[in-house]
Structures are given as structure tokens and as C-alpha cells.
Amino acid sequence: MMATKNAKIGLVLAALFLVFLVSTTAGAATISVPGDYSTITAAMNAADSGDTVEVAAGTYSPSANGEVFPINIKNGVALVGAGADVTVIDSEGYTSLEYICQGWYGCYWANVRQRVIKFSGTSDPATTLQGFTITGGNGGILVENGSAPTIDSCIIANNGDWNYWGTPNGGGIRVHNSAPCITNCTIVNNSAGYGGGMSIYSTG
């Protein structure tokens, strides 16, 4: 009788372990662009922490596929391109209407050119940007609010435009109160008020 009871307990524990294993592994998904979604923005909106958004070779821009900027990378999500030489995210100087307050200028609505990629509050180091050329933005990548993403094997080039408002500091990458891991990246031909390539203001 005792042996039967122990066997039943063992089966229950094994079943619980299997349920736990499935629940912890089934959550991670791979989302394809353009296979599952036509834009990186839509794929990122659909992604959850632990997911990977895989982007096929090509150019992703407002004119090419209706991309919207900045692309906000979610915490714990990996955005992976097919390689920086063949996968380009180009904001084409994308603008959006914003309410701006500028000291003695006062507050006003204006069309403001956006950065290409934004990490904000992405503290999970699994948050990743890999294998893209990032170009055409009023600044390439913004990393802020305690973010700690990995930025790997990217080309950040030709971002920044000295317009009426000026390019934000950090034409290629701006780091503000954050600690990204940046590896194997080329940062070239970007412009800004200062820190044309990169601006770092207080690491997290």
C-alpha cells in the first residue's frame, strides 16, 4: 500500500514538473518581420519579454514598409536583423507632432524629427539590438531610464541634422542614466551639438 502511495506522489510531482517546464519554455516566441508583421513596430508591440523579433534582410523605413519612429524596444525582447550590411532601419527624417517647452521660448506644438531606436526602462540585459544599420534619425539610438540593453554588431551612421531645434546630444548613441553593453559596432558620420558619435550622461 505504501509503495502504491509513493508511486502516486511521484507521478503527481513528475506531472507538476512537466507543467512547470512547459510554462517556462512555451512563453518565448520568435516573431518574424515581414513574415508575421509587416513592420518592426507592429512586431515589437506584439512581443513579450523573452521573445525574439527576427527581421529579414531589407530596408525598413516610412516609404518602404510604413515604419513608425522611434522604434521602442520592449524590456527583455531581442530585436535581431539578418546582418548590418543587409538589414537597414532608416527613419528617413521621420517627424511626429510633439508639445515642446523650451524655457523663454515657451511651449508650442512642433513636428519633431525622431531618433531611430529607443530603449527606456529596459533593465533586463536580455534586451538586445543586433545586426542592423541604424540611419536617418535625429540621433540614432537613445538609451535612458536605467536601461541595460546589449547593442551588438550594428552600424550607426548618418544620423543627426542641425535644424532649428538642433540635434539632441549624442548623434549616434545617447546614454542617459543607463549602462548598455555595446559590442562590435561601427559608429560613423553622425552629428550633434556635442557627442556626434556618442554622448554619455551618468551611467546607471
Summary, kept brief:
By secondary structure, the protein is an alpha/beta fold. 17% of the residues lie in helices and 34% in strands. The strands form four sheets. Strands 1-2-5-10-13-16 form a six-stranded parallel sheet, covered by helices on one side.
Question: What order do the helices and strands come in, and which of them pair?
Answer:
Layout: H1 2-25, E1 30-33, H2 40-46, E2 52-55, E3 58-60, H3 62-65, E4 71-72, E5 78-81, E6 87-90, E7 95-101, E8 107-113, E9 117-120, E10 128-130, E11 133-135, E12 141-144, E13 150-152, E14 155-157, E15 173-176, E16 181-183, E17 186-188, E18 198-201
Parallel strand pairs: 1-2, 2-5, 3-6, 4-9, 5-10, 6-11, 9-12, 10-13, 11-14, 12-15, 13-16, 14-17, 15-18
Antiparallel strand pairs: 7-8
Compute the separation of the termini in Å.
Answer: 60 Å
SSE string: HEHEEHEEEEEEEEEEEEEEE
Q: Give me the side-by-side strand order of the main sheet.
A: 1-2-5-10-13-16
Percent in helix: 10-25%
Instruction: Estimate what percentage of residues fall within beta strands.
Output: 25-35%
Number of helices: 3
Instruction: Report the major sheet.
Output: 6 strands, parallel
What would your notes on this structure say?
About 11% of the residues have low confidence. The chain has three helices and 18 strands. β1, α2 and β2 form a beta-alpha-beta unit. The N and C termini lie far apart (60 Å). The longest helix is centred in the first third of the chain and has 24 residues. It is an alpha/beta fold and 204 residues long. The strands form four sheets. A six-stranded parallel beta sheet has the order 1-2-5-10-13-16, with helices on one face.
